[in-house]
Design a protein that fits this description.
The complex is a heterodimer of chains A (about 260) and B (about 260). Chain A is globular. The two termini of chain A are about 20 Å apart. Chain A folds into two domains: about 35 residues; about 220 residues, MetI-like (MetI-like fold, Orthogonal Bundle). In chain A, about 85% of the residues lie in helices and about 0% in strands. Chain A is built from ten helices and no strands. Chain A is an all-alpha fold and about 260 residues long. Chain B is globular. Chain B starts with a helix and ends in a 12-residue tail after the last helix. Classes of the chains: A mainly alpha (about 260), B mainly alpha (about 260). At the A-B interface, helix 1, helix 4, helix 5, helix 8 and helix 9 of A face helix 1, helix 4, helix 5, helix 8 and helix 9 of B.
Chain lengths: ~260, ~260
């Protein structure tokens, strides 16, 4: 019953996607939109493949993925450790919280000029921007999670003799895992969006660079369109993988 | 109360220590003023920005005004389209099933990746920036409106039904008020997204706006102006989000939906 209705949902979803694709293709065939600036899906893929070999797409994709994964891991580790520590140890919280609250309203992209000043145009500046994209949502959610642990859990574990780090690892962290999970998902999406922007503005490889370069060098709209679709798909697939990973991880404590 | 006092005191001391540390570090030659602009320079730069402007003639107020106007145009357009569309999709299950994967996909497309395509279609001017902001805000708002309508507590609907309320009256009197907190939360998150997009969009093809200001300042080796621009962006972002939160509490006292907002 349940899987049946899920199958039904998927069929409806597929129908929706096909309708949009067909409408797009038809609009270019019938001349409703100008195919020189907005080619249909078939024409776009065909001419993008003619213009650039698949290895170029894959190479740029690999660079983007490398940067976003690297920066995200740095941001996730720093955000988790600092967020938990600031919530668990009051003294540390006094120092960490004002700095985080002060810097949090500044969007990661606004750091691009300063990142270039500090780290130059190479990889470190991209890692830094992606790091910021991941860090702020994750540190906020880790802090929120650890400061909202059910007090009865804390009291219960204390009566079993747990304290200090033992309580942090056996009670605090498992109890705040769902909050952290939300932060990780948001952080991943933000890291991804921020990276593409950073690649558009200052880079010489990566998917963001590829599509911007195609535009500035007067290349083909098809490559731009295929590039955008690739960016969307890559984000979608990696986010789903992260979600599945997180579900398995917190499933140990929170069931399901 | 005492804790808040300690917190405020530590925060002030910390910031003062950082500012003094940078000032001292630059003066003694440990830090480069270009990499770590000291507070004294930032203050001078601020005076310059408010009087002469950077680039000359464009003051910080103009930059801020231009940025805010761009955000508002794209944001309002997105809300105006997303709300009725979301109400419709949320109320018709078949439409919801058909559009769900599409909406997930369009939300996954990083808004700024549309920049090159938008330039091809609409040129590098104002319209492109407004459309990008609109795109970013639209999908966030749309999915929150749909979720708001879809996830109305079934107990509320059953209760209304047992009072013989149905059809349009049910929608207007029960579903809409119950969906409003979520919609409001969506509107808040969407504004945040618009704010994020604009900074990136302004870094290309314009000299006005806060994003352009911080990028231009960097290429003229005026890092203190970059830092001022970042601070103004931060203050603006803070004012926007806290202002909307206050507005939300005022308007929706039954509220409580803000924490459920999906990004």
């Amino acid at each position: 019953m349940r899987s049946g209705s899920r199958m039904g949902d998927a069929m409806w979803g597929l129908a929706g996607i096909l309708i949009v694709l067909a409408a797009w293709e038809l609009a270019t065939r019938l001349g409703a939109i100008d195919p020189t600036i907005f080619p249909g899906p078939i024409a776009a893929i065909r001419s993008a493949a003619q213009r650039l070999p698949a290895s170029v797409f894959l190479d740029n994709m690999a660079w983007s993925l490398f940067r976003v994964v690297g920066g995200f891991i740095l941001g996730a580790v720093a955000g988790t450790v600092i967020g938990f520590a600031a919530g668990w140890y009051r003294g540390f919280g006094y120092f960490a919280r004002p700095l985080i609250e002060l810097l949090r309203p500044i969007p990661p992209l606004a750091w691009i000029p300063l990142a270039i000043i500090w780290f130059g145009l190479g990889e470190p500046s991209k890692f830094f921007i992606v790091f910021l994209g991941a860090f702020f949502p994750i540190v906020t959610s880790a802090y929120h999670g650890i400061t909202h642990v059910d007090p009865s859990l804390i009291r219960a574990s204390r009566s079993f003799g747990l304290k200090g780090l033992g309580m942090l690892f056996h009670v605090g962290i498992p109890a705040s895992a769902p909050d952290l999970a939300t932060g990780l998902r948001i952080g991943w999406g933000l890291s991804f969006g921020v990276l593409v922007a950073a690649e558009l503005i200052a880079a010489n490889r990566g998917l963001g660079f590829m599509i911007m370069n195609e535009r500035t060098s007067g290349g083909s709209v098809s490559v731009i369109i295929v590039g955008i679709l690739l960016i969307g798909l890559l984000n979608l697939v990696t986010d789903a993988a992260l979600a599945a990973f997180i579900r398995r991880w917190i499933g140990r404590w929170h069931g399901g | 109360m005492r804790q808040q006092l300690i917190q405020a005191l530590v925060a002030l001391l910390l910031i003062a220590a950082i500012l003094l540390g940078v000032e001292f570090g630059v003066r003694e030659g440990y830090l480069k003023a270009y990499e770590f602009p000291p507070a004294s320079r930032i203050a001078q730069g601020f005076v310059e920005l408010t009087t002469v402007g950077f680039p000359t003639g464009v003051t910080i107020w103009t930059h801020t005004f231009v940025t805010v106007m761009r955000i508002l145009k794209g944001y309002v357009a997105a809300i105006v389209i997303a709300v009725p569309l979301g109400l419709l999709i949320g109320a018709v299950p078949v439409l919801d099933k058909m559009t769900a994967p599409l909406i997930v996909f369009f939300r996954s497309v990083a808004t700024l990746s549309l920049l090159p395509l938008a330039i091809v279609w609409f040129g590098a001017g104002e319209l492109t920036k407004v459309i990008l902001i609109g795109y970013g805000c639209f999908w966030v708002m749309l999915s929150n409106v749909i979720a708001g309508v879809k996830y109305v507590d079934p107990a509320l609907i059953r209760a209304a039904r047992s009072f013989r309320v149905s059809g349009w009256t049910l929608y207007r009197e029960v579903v809409l008020p119950a969906a409003l907190p979520r919609m409001f939360a969506g509107a808040r998150v969407a504004l945040g997204v618009g704010f994020m997009v604009i900074v990136g969009a302004e870094m290309i093809g314009t000299i006005q706006g806060l994003g352009a200001l911080i990028m231009e300042a960097r290429s003229f080796y005026r890092s203190e102006i970059t830092v001022i621009g970042m601070l103004v962006i931060g203050v603006l972002g803070f004012l926007i989000s806290s202002g909307l939160a206050a507005f939300e509490r005022l308007l929706l006292p039954w509220g409580g939906g803000s924490s459920e907002a999906s990004r």
